[in-house]
Amino acid sequence: MTDFPIIDMHCHTAGIGAGGSGCFVSPGLQRSWKYRIYLRAFGITQAELLREGDGLIPRRLSRTLAGSRRVAAAVVLAMDGVVDERGELERGQTEIYIPNEFIAAAVRCHPNLLFGASVNPCRGDALERLERVHAEGAVLVKWLPSIQHIDPADRRLVPFYRRLRELELPLLTHTGEESSFTRSRDELGDPERLRLPLQEGVTVIAAHAASNGRNGGEPNHRRFLRLCAEFPNLHADISALTQVNRLGQLSRLLKYEELHGRLLYGTDMPLITTGITSPWFHAYRLPPPTLARILAEKNPWDRDVLLKEALGVPAEVFGNTAKLLRPLLR
């Protein structure tokens, strides 16, 4: 057991603009088969969203999380969009948009949800937005560079990085390939592009530990490990590492015991409620009684914890998120 509560640091929500949320999903993504899977994963229908508003998803997340015996809270992530040359939101290039205001309001209603902000640093007022989300209680800033068209290695972002460091806000940024959307600039998920914020002293969290894809002629996870050896301020979350398309990647990462203090618990909710994370995919590694116990667990967060414990994730890792975020928890 860990001395710190278990916090899921990688939990998604979504919205279609219902109830004046300001959220939107692009027409292209709504036409994709992926959109229907995401609705099903959240356990809602579009008709329900239209009737009850986008706040329905955070409410259900909070209610399900309240039923967990193991996980105390979850960081729910906003998602900024693509920005044009004028530093303004480019709606036509943005596949999903979840404004900070929507998430900040949701977490005020649900004490077991924490505010994960998202600010595209290319916005004309990026620094002002950063100050605002910090004042509203954000515990981190989330990027998905390959979708938001952010180059973390762009030196024009140095003032943004320096303010992140001063505010002690961690930067959670996707690393590796991205397959949840209809298009992706995967070169922007190259962990090597994180060298600049790391040099500026930002606490950087590589989402999914760069566990898939290649850049520069080598696997992204090797590029991530090399950076870890250079920068003690580089962390990683273990979300998505039990998915069927990432089999073996969690055990590979756990072999580096020197990194256990920098690995953070996350789920990539709602993907843990879909078939791609079924414990059956790990049956070859689990004793039948253990597999049966995991399969019998109905709460998705508790089932995820049980599976990751069975796959060798040490107790320390489950408490690391709370330890890292402790200065920002209010």
UniProtKB/TrEMBL annotation:
Domain spans labelled Amidohydrolase-related: 7-295
SUPFAM superfamilies reported in the protein's UniProt record: Metallo-dependent hydrolases
Gene3D superfamilies the UniProt entry points to: Metal-dependent hydrolases (3.20.20.140)
Entry superkingdom: Bacteria
Pfam family, one: Amidohydro_2
Protein name: Amidohydrolase family protein
Organism of derivation: Geomobilimonas luticola
